[in-house]
Write a structure and sequence with these properties.
Elements lengths: L4 H12 L5 H16 L3 E2 L18 H12 L1 H19 L9 H17 L2 H7 L8 H7 L1 H31 L1 H7 L2 H19 L1 H5 E12 L10 E12 L4 H36 L8 H34 L5 H19 L1 H8 L1 H15 L3 H11 L3 H20 L5
Parallel strand pairs: 1-3
Antiparallel strand pairs: 2-3
GO molecular function: neuropeptide receptor activity
Organism: Caenorhabditis elegans
Subcellular location: Membrane
């Protein structure tokens, strides 16, 4: 009577302490039995031998492109992303932005960008060495579906939050009464919670449709070739991620739905909203209609949306196209996909620096905030924090008035 697949798997767990697929288990058992019949014993120094095999190619092909940007481009982007988005989160909390519902979306987008960037940390560590690290190899591969899910959730949230800020800005410009009625802090939190739940439910499918296989091979080892030592055998594992063939239809449906819901529709909607914002903001005198804070948020919204459309649009479209195709896509598509993934990382990093370059008010708040953080004197620190929450034009007038007062006090003769 032939053994059942479950019995074969249990046999490998008992003999080798590894959970393998039945076919791979039979191959390992047959190879070990053949070697032992030839007098080849198990290596006594197995813990010091390479337990895992690094399957990435460091010299040629698409792997080389991926490894190059993971080693040299992603680490500095991670540092800039953390600094920029953390400053965004802190600056959005200043009193200047109190009462703005859009700023909650911008703060959540900054957090989503950091999560998206640092979900690649294990990939960077995995690519940092051409030789496998015994503790990192299983951690990287077994957590890969979950890290991909986190990355996709945060990327989708970043896209949706950009769309929400853009739509809210259109409502503020074109229908201000509706904007004041519905765009409240409470409604903002409700939308954020529902969006997070929807993005999680959408991308939890990645864990279902992605399998991580551990493939074990039997290797022979001779300790010293110059001496006639007998060879011995040891087990070496390699991991790979693949699409589960039992969920192929479900995977294609998921990829198509993701491309439509989190990429194509939001991108088109953002493009239309941006055109409306730029048209109204350019050809209409908004000096009396909107406060300085609202105009600052509108400029930040336009900069955020245009940056997202420039970097994230083609990147996410190519990524989804490769997801629909599956594992068998061309070298050119593979290289283009990695290049666009790099564009997505740049998109998660650059908003702070775009705001800093284009917005005088944001630049003023950033400078004052950094001065406050590095200041050791508590009185000056409190003063800088207070200045960071003021309008830059108002701050200039305060400084001018202060200098005039100080000049008069100094120049006035003393009667003492």
């Amino acid at each position: 009577m032939d053994p059942k697949p479950a019995d074969i798997v249990k046999m490998c767990v008992d003999h080798f302490d590894k959970l393998l697929e039945p076919i791979n288990c039979i191959q390992v058992i047959a190879t070990v039995q053949s070697l032992e019949e030839q007098g080849v014993a198990k290596c006594s120094i197995s813990p010091t031998l390479p337990t895992y095999r690094h399957i990435m190619n460091f010299t040629s092909g698409c792997d080389y492109v991926e490894l190059t940007y993971l080693q040299y481009a992603v680490p500095p982007l991670m540092m800039l992303c953390f600094i920029g988005n953390m400053l965004n989160v802190l600056i959005y909390g200043l009193p200047y932005f109190e009462g703005s519902s859009s700023v909650h979306f911008l703060r959540a987008k900054a957090i989503a960008n950091m999560v998206f960037m640092f979900s690649r940390i294990l990939e960077v560590m995995h690519a940092s060495s051409p030789h496998p690290i015994y503790w990192l190899e299983p951690l990287f591969w077994k957590s890969r579906p979950y890290m991909m899910m986190v990355s996709n959730i945060s990327g989708t949230m970043s896209t949706w939050l950009t769309l929400m800020v853009t739509m809210e800005t259109v409502m503020c410009i074109m229908t201000p009464f509706v904007f004041r009625k519905y765009c409240t802090k409470k409604m903002t939190w409700i939308v954020l919670i529902l969006s997070t739940i929807a993005a999680t439910l959408l991308h939890v499918a990645i864990v279902i449709v992605t399998d991580v296989q551990e493939i074990v091979q039997v290797r022979q080892y001779i300790q010293n070739f110059k001496k006639e030592n007998a060879p011995c055998w040891f087990l070496q594992s390699a991991f790979r991620a693949r699409n589960n063939p039992y969920y192929e239809i479900y995977r294609r449906f998921y990829a198509t739905t993701t491309m439509a819901v989190s990429i194509v529709i939001p991108t088109i909607a953002m493009l239309v909203c941006t055109v409306l914002i730029i048209k109204k903001f350019t050809f209409k005198n908004l000096g009396e209609t909107f406060s300085q804070r609202r105009k600052c948020v509108i400029r930040m919204t336009v900069a955020t949306t245009l940056t997202h459309l420039f970097f994230e649009g083609p990147a996410t479209l190519t990524h989804s196209a490769s997801a629909i195709q599956g594992d068998n896509y061309s070298f050119l598509m593979c290289v283009l996909n990695h290049g666009n993934n790099l564009g997505s990382l740049v998109n998660a990093t650059i908003p702070f620096f775009v705001f800093l370059f284009c917005n005088q008010q944001f630049r003023h708040m950033t400078v004052m905030y950094i001065k406050a953080v590095i200041q050791t004197d508590q009185v000056k620190r409190k003063s800088y924090f207070s200045q960071a929450g003021m309008r830059c034009g108002r701050m200039s007038r305060i400084e001018t008035d202060r200098s005039m007062v100080e000049t008069r006090l100094v120049s006035r003769p003393s009667n003492v």
